[in-house]
Amino acid sequence: MSKYTSDLLRLLEERGHLHQITDPEALDALAAKQVVTGYVGFDPTAPSLHIGNLASIMLLKRLQDAGHRPIVIMGGGTAKVGDPSGRDETRQMLTEEKLASNIAGIQGTFERILRFDDSETGALLINNDDWLSKLGYVELLRDVGPHFTINRMLTFDSVKLRLDREQPLTFIEFNYMIMQAYDYLVLAREYNCQLQMGGSDQWGNIVNGIELARRIDGKEVYGVTAPLITRSDGQKMGKSVSGAIWLNEDQLPAYDFWQYWRNTDDRDVGHFLRIFTDIPLEEIARLEALEGAEINEAKIVLANAVTAMVRGDEAAKAAEATAKETFAGGGAGEDLPTLAVGNEGMRVAAALTAIGFTASNGEAKRKIAEGAVKLDDAAVNDPGFLLLPSQGTQLRLSLGKKKHGLVTR
């Protein structure tokens, strides 16, 4: 039985999204009696978000599902500075044009997952560059600076990590937490925003914003963080041998996205179903209790649900059909990743890396030596074997039982 009375905190709790809350009783009471506007910030440092960001997007979805209003903050202003949280090095500076392009690429993800309309709970997407780039430096120093002390700022993990390792933390990055706190002040003033959410690594930044709104405007606002998602094997969520698991089709084909979820460790299935899908908890309990080969049913449900939410129903259906044809029928489904080797062909070791199955040619050669590589279901033992399909035909390249692709001319 939940200790919370509001639909919002009960939903966040039962789905595994709660880590820290600044004032649980007050926020619970507020959410039980009125519509709460809450936000999560996303810095557009790449043309796509990845599934590490998906947990934060789900916070906004849960907020809206519980009858409240989500705001997506695109960090067009803060991205010009760079968030030092969880990083060992300085972020690269991005141009105005690149930031605008990244925001355009990211926006579609939110439009698929959240409801944007003119209702009281319709989502908003706002760029913090709208106010940060207009903010005068002297104005910032005068109005906001007195509320921050260097002593306090040095205690935050994002700063301590860099200083402890004697790695450079530039003055411009040091200002990131001030800029993010100012975001909350603006949103509280202009949109009556009373809640900021994010991963647990954002706790310090969130608390800064809460304190700034209280000190300058006397306004009570709140913060919620979710646990950072890691897999049961200890690896960071969203990483694979080939790199990040991107949410956009341009950065990662739907089949590869689907396959990532299909390959979830047995121990993670229930946890991921709760966090990343809307499947009822009773059904999740049934699925995560499956054992042996039957747990694959739950993994397919997970893969279909997340892919449908992020990429659309048709993408999920096509990916599942490709998987069935590939694994059950020995065929080559249309959704498999494809590598064109041209008229000169390509050595199999290089092809494994080029198609994204291995991180390097060295790893590819090791996999070949282990007997894990097949071409049209026949083992390949020579890393120098030339892949040169006939014009108009294709070869099926496989690494282990789970990675399959097509090689074409």
Secondary-structure blueprint:
Elements: H1 7-14, E1 20-21, H2 24-33, E2 37-42, H3 51-65, E3 69-74, H4 96-113, E4 124-127, H5 129-132, H6 137-143, H7 150-153, H8 157-164, H9 171-174, H10 176-191, E5 193-199, H11 203-217, E6 222-226, E7 239-240, E8 243-244, H12 254-262, H13 269-276, H14 281-288, H15 295-311, H16 313-328, E9 338-340, E10 346-347, H17 348-354, H18 361-369, E11 373-375, E12 378-379, E13 386-387, E14 394-399, E15 403-408
Parallel strand pairs: 2-3, 2-5, 3-4, 5-6, 9-15
Antiparallel strand pairs: 1-6, 7-8, 10-13, 11-12, 11-14, 14-15
Helix pairs in contact: 10-11, 12-15, 12-16, 13-14, 13-15, 15-16, 17-18
Jot down its keywords.
Tyrosyl-Transfer RNA Synthetase; 18 helices; Structural Genomics Hypothetical 15.5 Kd Protein In mrcA-pckA Intergenic Region, Chain A; 15 strands; alpha/beta; 14% strand; six-stranded mixed sheet; 3 domains; five-stranded mixed sheet; 409 residues; Rossmann fold
Concise summary:
By secondary structure, the protein is α/β, with parallel strands linked by helices. The chain is 45% helix and 14% strand.
Structure commentary:
There is one protein chain. By secondary structure, the chain is of the alpha/beta class. The protein contains 18 helices and 15 strands. The protein has helices spanning 7-14, 24-33, 51-65, 96-113, 129-132, 137-143, 150-153, 157-164, 171-174, 176-191, 203-217, 254-262, 269-276, 281-288, 295-311, 313-328, 348-354, 361-369, and strands at residues 20-21, 37-42, 69-74, 124-127, 193-199, 222-226, 239-240, 243-244, 338-340, 346-347, 373-375, 378-379, 386-387, 394-399, 403-408. A 6-stranded mixed beta sheet has the order 1-6-5-2-3-4, with helices on both faces. Strands 9-15-14-11-12 form a 5-stranded mixed beta sheet, with helices on one face. It has a two-stranded antiparallel sheet with strand order 7-8. α10 (176-191) packs across α11, α12 (254-262) crosses α16 and α15 packs antiparallel against α16.
